[in-house]
Amino acid sequence: EVQLVGSGGGLVQAGGSLSLSCAASGFAFDEYAIGWFRQAPGKEREGVSCTGADNSSSYADSVKGRFTISRDSAKNTVYLQMNSLKPEDTAVYYCATQIQCGVGVPWYWGQGTQVTVSS
Q: What is the pLDDT of residue 103?
């Protein structure tokens, strides 16, 4: 059974940091890209960052220089380190598997984790 378990969300003040984790199981972790997406109230879901099977990484312009994505094959886990958080980063964050970063639609979604940044 495929599983993606996201965790690490919480409440933080603007300028603070949070680290999200996405623990994967039930598929060949090293063969797939894992992306982080977010959805704020009243807004469409958007891509935040992605790590490819080749350990490549990509970021939305809005988070470049503040967020860092990484993956640990030994733990089948992807991390999203979020620094210098802004109130506009407030959203539910989801991790999802993709064939390739930026290509096609994710084929499996984890449950979301809430990130709230207070001003």
A: 85
Q: What is the 3-state secondary structure (H, E, C) of the chain?
A: CCEEEEECCEEEECCCCEEEEEEEECCCHHHCEEEEEEECCCCCCEEEEEECCCCCEEECCCCCCCEEEEEECCCCEEEEEECCCCHHHCEEEEEEEECECCECCCCEECCCEEEEEEC
Tell me the torsion sign for CA atoms 99, 100, 103, 106: positive
Question: pLDDT digit string (tens) for 17-36?
Answer: 999 999 999 999 999 999 99
Distances in whole angstroms, Cα of residue 74 to Cα of each of 30, 50, 102: 10, 18, 24
Cβ–Cβ under 8 Å, residues 47 and 37: yes
- The model's pLDDT over 60-118, given as tens digits with 9 standing for 90+, comes to 999 999 999 999 999 999 999 999 999 999 999 999 999 999 888 899 999 999 999 99
Residues 65, 48, 104, CA angle at the centre, nearest 5°? 135
